[in-house]
Amino acid sequence: MNKKSKSYIFSKRFLDISVAIFALIVLSPVFLCVSILYLFGENRGPVFYQQTRIGFEHRKFKIYKFRSMVVGADERLMENSELYAKFVANGYKLPTSEDPRITSLGAFLRKTSIDELPQFINILKGDMSIIGPRPVVEKELVEYGDEVDVFLSVRPGAMGLWQASGRSNIQYPERAQLELDYAKNANIWFDFRIIFMTISAIFRKVGAM
């Protein structure tokens, strides 16, 4: 495992805090507009979706997203055995076009990656970093075999090598290998490279669901 230097850890946390504060200020009009849309129709309900994820050194935290599904979506998924089986087989995701839980607003938010913006709150809190492996639910840890501790040796990120390489086009076990490659080789230059790769993938809509 690549041992992270104190200077790298400090500079990365400083960058995370600075970027998160700036982003939350600049994006506040977007937060306001999206929040208003949750007052009407099928979107009516909580603005944020929260889900327990496993983070740095096995610590659990609540990840924030703009809610893209109907209220009670997780319960609907668990109650439908066929849908849940497909969800697991597809790398713990479902294509937006095939997921009956997703609202029309939610489909737009996902396609544009706007649903991910609240994760700047997680970054500011220290749950996540700008760059790192994508945070997973506890059931997904099995995909990392005996290298789970390596995977969880860095803070999970809003952007990462998996997203930069193709997001939902890449499934397990290839996804796990990409995430482990980052955890083993993380450094400041690798982080900046992933930022540019991810921005390019978003604009080209590579792997967006």
What does this structure look like?
The chain is mainly α. Helices cover 47% and strands 10% of the residues. The protein has helices spanning 6-26, 28-37, 73-79, 81-89, 104-111, 119-125, 148-151, 161-165, 174-185, 188-203; strands at residues 48-54, 60-66, 129-131, 157-159. The strands form two sheets. Strands 1-2 form a two-stranded antiparallel ribbon. A two-stranded parallel sheet has the order 3-4. Helix 1 (6-26) crosses helix 6. It is globular, with a radius of gyration of 17 Å. The two termini are 32 Å apart.
How do the strands line up in the largest sheet? 1-2
Number of helices: 10
Number of strands: 4
Strand content: 5-15%
For the sheet with most strands, the description reads: 2 strands, antiparallel
Low-pLDDT runs of 5+ residues are: none
Rg result: 17 Å
| N- to C-terminal distance | 32 Å
Query: Which range best describes the helical content: under 10%, 10-25%, 25-40%, 40-55%, 55-70% or over 70%?
Result: 40-55%
